[in-house]
């Protein structure tokens, strides 16, 4: 589990612009946030720094803290948000807290699209998603209510592929696989269905749409 931000880093995050997520701080502070995946440096001059979806989640105060006694939801350790890709050995528990985290991260990602796409489009993946393909696709699925694979193997799994800008999405239920395809297409991804040559397993190949 990634350590939560330090007090100094949290002050920089809390002072971010509430709409754009633009950050102000020393170069050392900003570089540390980038290294932890909480901020990114805009590729165009003047190379401002902005919060990533994980940074937006932390700024909005949605942290993984123990639930009150009797809530029926197992407490999870504090840390940086991570989209569920399916099949994790120790996944975060489901429930209202997780849904709030996912919703906040998705809204932060949409704002990131508006800020960094040249035409301010929010319906098309941005540069951050292209450099974080697996978590970006997984976040789109989880935010839409799809269930990641658990110990029983049911649910989606998002995995890397040898292709430079594509991920594979597996879902044992055929109808659910088609629903995943529709969700990704709606989130700005190009999707095609394939079968593994040896096993015949159906899967999706998804790439961020550029236009």
UniProtKB/TrEMBL annotation:
Organism of derivation: Streptomyces levis
Designated name of the protein: Uncharacterized protein
Bias kind Basic and acidic residues: ranges: 45-67
Renumbered residue ranges of the record's region Disordered: 39-99, 189-211
